[in-house]
TrEMBL record:
Species the sequence originates in: Alkalibacillus silvisoli
Cross-referenced InterPro entries: CsrA, CsrA_sf
Keyword set includes Iron: no
Pfam families linked to this entry: CsrA
Gene, per the UniProt record: csrA
Transcription regulation keyword on record: no
NCBIfam families with a match to the protein in the record: csrA, PRK01712.1
Complex formation: Homodimer; the beta-strands of each monomer intercalate to form a hydrophobic core, while the alpha-helices form wings that extend away from the core.
Compartments, as annotated in UniProt: Cytoplasm
Protein known as: Translational regulator CsrA
The organism's taxonomic lineage, starting at the top: Bacteria, Bacillati, Bacillota, Bacilli, Bacillales
């Protein structure tokens, strides 16, 4: 893990298209601004893990469940 020290107003650059900037510091919280292309998904880690778990659970569907979903008629 790379550990960097930044002050308010300073940035970290990742490749040519992602910039992470320290916007503010209030007590023990740091406000970050992230400038990245629209195709790059950005989530808080706990949300990202939740998405991964839900995707994994969805991929565990049985063939019967998948067939039921395919055969459901839309009105």
């Amino acid at each position: 893990m790379l550990v960097l020290t930044r002050k308010q107003g300073e940035s970290i650059q990742i490749n040519d298209d992602i910039e992470i900037k320290v916007i503010g510091i209030e007590g023990d919280q740091i406000k970050l601004g992230i400038d990245a292309p629209k195709h790059v998904d950005i989530h808080r880690k706990e949300i990202y893990q939740q998405i991964r778990e839900e995707n994994q659970a969805a991929s565990q569907l049985t063939p019967n469940t998948i067939n039921l979903l395919k055969n459901t008629k839309k009105d």
